[in-house]
Amino acid sequence: MTPLERRYRRLMRAYPRSYRSAYGEELLDILLGHTDPARTTPPLKEAAGLLVNGVRERAWQAARGPAWTDGLHLGVTALSAAHLATLLPYAAAVPGWLALSALTLALVVLGRARLALPLASLTAVKMGAIGTGAVFLDATLLPVEPGFLLDHSLYGYSGLLGAAAGPVLNVAGLGILAWRGGSLRRRSLWWAPAALLVAGADPAWMALTDAAPGPLLRVTAEAAVLAGAVWAGRLTGDLRWALAAALYLAATSAAFGEHLLHQSRQDLAYWGVLALLTLLTAVVPYGARTRAID
Amino acid sequence: MYFVLAALLDGPLHGHAIVGKVTELSRQRVRPSISTLYGILERLTAQGILAVDREEVVQGRNRRYFRITDSGKALAAAEAERMHHAAGLVRARPDLGTA
Hints:
The structure holds 2 protein chains of 2 kinds.
Chain A: H1 3-11, H2 17-33, H3 44-62, H4 67-87, H5 95-109, H6 113-132, H7 160-180, H8 191-197, H9 213-236, H10 240-257, H11 265-283
Helix pairs in contact in A: 1-2, 4-5, 4-7, 4-8, 4-10, 5-6, 6-7, 7-10, 9-10, 9-11, 10-11
Chain B: H1 2-7, E1 13-14, H2 15-25, H3 34-46, E2 50-58, E3 61-68, H4 70-91
Antiparallel strand pairs in B: 1-3, 2-3
């Protein structure tokens, strides 16, 4: 294998695996046929084209199948990952519930809504109990103190709404998916490291004015993912990303709204960005290009 | 992509040939990257404007031949008519020396 072919193959990883299996060799054949064999690196135009069109192909493949079911599944996956991220700094205090949250995310990612539903329901009730200081199943020592990353207790600044909104919406979404039956697609395993990345950034009390790395990382990740959703909705004219974004925004807004009167301008701006991007995911598919020739 | 449809009006072509024909028909003005051209071929095929005519294996690699469908031909004709009308708006003016 020449260095040129190796580099082309590396760039082609931007495409989904199924596409590469079906058409990768054909595409590579033409790329090599149209590139000066004396070159060791692909021309910039072809390199950029492979990256951009690979991501586009991923969006097109993601837009297959029933939009509302897949959008709901995507929203539930994001909520499950966000919940795991919230619990991670409290691993030492609530290891069982953290494990349950991780198992729920794994089942959601695998598309097993019926198996995930009872686990998510248990977690939702427990989070509500922690938020209100009640006892549920095990005797959890309150307040639940963090082991790392944070300096405030779990839901220490939240009431029932802030603690339970995300988990309850998660249960509602999973309930609909379980009731509907049928198979759900297996989602990317990258959701687990994504949860690790935003660990400890609880939307109920992000304290953006402190410019701590955790909340800033979460804000950046959320804005980047939602901007990607806007782009995918525009490209494919599909509303599944809007549904997922709306579910996520609803959970974040409930936690955020609990302290609405005490939010700083930065916090309000953060919520405004999330709301604007979510609105765009719902609007842009209607302006998607429908002409075949341009 | 108008030139892709125009390139296939004479019969099915594989990717290699489509790239060359598009460049030739557009007088070198349209030279999309290979991946962009393939993205266009995939979308037009998904929309029923193109179809895969046949597949051949050359040196161990699959090679698809694309052909234009009847709806693709109608689309190309409609686009040609639209551009003809648009060109006529300028060409009919004697003051531009194109009439």
